[in-house]
Amino acid sequence: MSQYQPPFRADTVGSLLRSDELKQARRRFQAGESDYSALRAVEDAEIRRVVAKQEALGLKAVTDGEFRRAWWHFDFLEGLQGVEGYSSDQGIQFQGRQTQARSVRVTDKLGFDPEHPMLGHFRFLAETVDKATPKMTLPSPSVLHFRGGRRNIDTSVYPSLDTFFADLADTYRDVVKHFYAAGCRYLQLDDTVWAYLCSEKELAAARERGEDADRLQHIYAEVLNHALADRPDDLHVSLHVCRGNFRSTWISEGGYEPVAETLLGRVDVDAYFLEYDTERAGGFEPLRFLPEGHKQAVLGLITSKSGELEPADTVSARIAEASRYAPLSQLCLSPQCGFASTEEGNLLSETQQWDKLRHVVDIAKAVWQD
């Protein structure tokens, strides 16, 4: 079935390396040296270029590379009603690197603005695509809660977190409805949090913030399921899980076993994009919780953190190993993450990025032959 509808045997997570021209245009705009229309013109041209490139490689789902964003998550979240961005005391700590000092907090009742700019971003992508399926990538609802937790949610607005989670679920239900109305039929929710829930270090940090860490996976599953309830049959929703991706570094480690039964068995999405490019992700045994039927597991066996190509026979062997726990017909292949979760991008060249995506397409053709 994956040959004809999302996810596809060869798929992509979403973000792409920004060109020097795009980076310079953004710097000029931020410095007040050009207006937004000048930046928008460069963005439009660069998106058209990478859409055409993705289609030429044979990808059946394409994205805009997240070229209108600085962050994979904050740009969208700041556009929600009740959410504001701010300059935090420090950035998010990765292995040996730290992001810019930026975060978001909840200051008022949550809601979705029908004028959210990313609806326009999707419409432009859909108009630009020729034959492929336009894919929209958005941060998952749990991302708004996990990193800051209770301290980043105004207690005068939400004295009870139960009310916060109920409004968060309703807000994302509106997100789904509005993107569907805009023509989106392939929606990906990016969710690093499920991997953090597999990390003892991240769980300990959550407990220090005052969270009931043992309940979080069940709360997040309920929020997602409410947000996705009653969605149209022709809207395909995937959940992308990774362990952090900034300048080719990472945050968490640990296999999927602690959350697999809830994540794979109870969260009502059509597919899971699962990071599997290093030993940090553990083995394929958790795939046994993937229900038989239409659900797909997209194996992130191709790393986006370096330019070196994985041997094709090694990747094929790993897919065969995964098929011991879930049917081959329910498996697909992709990079483990995007190539530029923030505008800085990972440490590889654009040529290497395209070679990686071509590698995904070629290996998928050889393995599934459908």
UniProtKB/TrEMBL annotation:
This is Cobalamin-independent methionine synthase II family protein. Residues 11-365 form the Cobalamin-independent methionine synthase MetE C-terminal/archaeal domain. It holds the Pfam family Meth_synt_2. SUPFAM superfamilies: UROD/MetE-like (SSF51726). The lineage of its organism: Bacteria, Pseudomonadati, Pseudomonadota, Gammaproteobacteria, Oceanospirillales. CDD domains: CIMS_C_terminal_like (cd03311). InterPro entries: Met_Synth_C/arc (IPR002629), UROD/MetE-like_sf (IPR038071).
